[in-house]
Design goal:
Layout lengths: L9 H12 L17 E8 L6 E7 L9 H9 L1 H4 L7 E6 L12 H6 L4
Parallel strand pairs: 2-3
Antiparallel strand pairs: 1-2
């Protein structure tokens, strides 16, 4: 990945975002939030005014009453502090519950890991 933040493409930022989301695990289920299907959308762009690499993550939780909701959202928001190459400099999180999460949103890898395949 390019180390110059001015030359990072939105596609590179999105790829890096996926890599970082795969490091965040749901504390109640031993699967990362990306493969668990909690991430509905990732949109990255270079802000024309600030020149920051910004990403918006639309995500849900396994349940609207998830006791770890704030922790998971904060972990996603804090991704820029863990990315040294400046490919992600600011993250906005939109938490949604429509459509509701269900097991069909999980990757095959996650289903296999949980014995559902």
């Amino acid at each position: 990945m390019n180390s110059d933040p001015r030359e990072v493409t939105p596609e590179e930022s999105e790829k890096r975002m996926v890599e970082e989301l795969q490091k965040i695990f749901d504390p109640e289920i031993p699967v990362d939030i990306y493969n668990l299907g909690l991430i509905y959308a990732i949109e990255c762009h270079k802000d024309e005014t600030s020149r920051l690499n910004r990403c918006k993550v639309t995500m849900t939780l396994t349940s609207a009453t998830c006791s770890m909701s704030e922790v998971l959202v904060d972990l996603v928001r804090s991704i820029p502090s863990r990315v040294e190459d400046h490919s992600i400099e600011e993250v906005e999180v939109e938490l949604v519950f429509d459509p509701p999460w269900d097991q069909s949103k999980m990757s095959d890898e996650a289903k296999l890991q949980l014995g559902l395949l």
